[in-house]
Amino acid sequence: MKKILLVLLVIAGTTGMYAQQNTVQPTVSVTGEGTVTVVPDGVTITVKVENEGKDATEVKQANDKGVDATLKFIKKMKLDSKDYKTDLVSLGKNYDYQTKTYKYTASQTLTIQLKDLSRYEELMQGLLANGVNRIDNVTFTSSKIDQLKTEARKKAVANAKQKAIEYASVLDQEVGKAIQIAETGSGYTPTPMFKTNMALANESADTLAVGEMEVTAKIQVVFELN
Q1: Are the CB atoms for 138 and 19 separated by under 8 Å?
Q2: Beta-ladder partners of 222
Q3: Left (φ > 0), alpha (ψ -120 to 50) or beta: where does 108 sit?
């Protein structure tokens, strides 16, 4: 009889232990968004010197001459050497089916970071006058980008908590501690308008409207519900 009673006590204790382990803690999962706007104070420009012709050597020499002129102009602008670099150098051979001849294309891509937007016009005009014949990308930036990302993340977490409180209040419950936090997305979106065509070389009018850029963050937070 004692053995049976002991077995029953062990089973009852084990069942209670599993019941405690399988207890589900109510939670609420929300995604918060935070946005900070700022006027850019810098710009990154991707440009290309490109030449085409029938002789590979001549094409390469012409392209090197254009790159040399471009780099000399950049140095005259007194930009820091770490603020400009060569990204890609290429020399390709293409067949023209209309003329049934081969053409060679040489190109070099440069990325330039300008930290003083008041010199934007001077830089663009000079680049186009000294060998650059393609402007592939213009991206506006902020020197305070890390600080702005931190601020956006904090706003995103606050927004997530506010959402959780609103959801819980409808159910007459309260939000407890956060048990999981994950960043689901962040970045910045410049919104200025700019011109990138060859007409820049002959224009004296303003070609840059800086506007504002948005720094955003998305944070997913799981809160306990009490």
Answers
A1: no
A2: 29, 180
A3: beta
* One-letter identity of residue 42: G
Cα 144–chain centre separation: 14
Instruction: Report helix, strand or coil for 33.
Output: strand
DSSP state of 48: E
By C-alpha distance, which of 62, 65, 40 is closest to 52? 62
Cβ-contact 153, 33 below 8 angstroms: no
The 10 Å CB-count burial string (b at 16+, else e) for 118-145 is eebbebbbbbbebbbeebeebbbbbeee
Global model pTM greater than 0.70: no
Using CA atoms, how far apart are residues 133 and 136, in angstroms rounded to an integer?
10
Tens digit of pLDDT at every position of the chain (226 positions): 555 544 444 455 555 555 555 678 899 999 999 999 988 889 999 999 999 999 999 999 999 999 999 999 999 999 999 999 999 999 999 988 888 889 999 999 999 999 998 899 999 999 999 999 999 998 888 899 999 999 999 999 999 999 999 999 999 999 999 999 999 977 766 544 444 444 444 444 455 566 788 899 999 999 999 9
For the stretch 97-101, contacts whose Cβ atoms lie closer than 8 Å and that sit 24 or more positions apart, written own/partner, are 101/54
Coil, strand or helix: which one is 165? helix
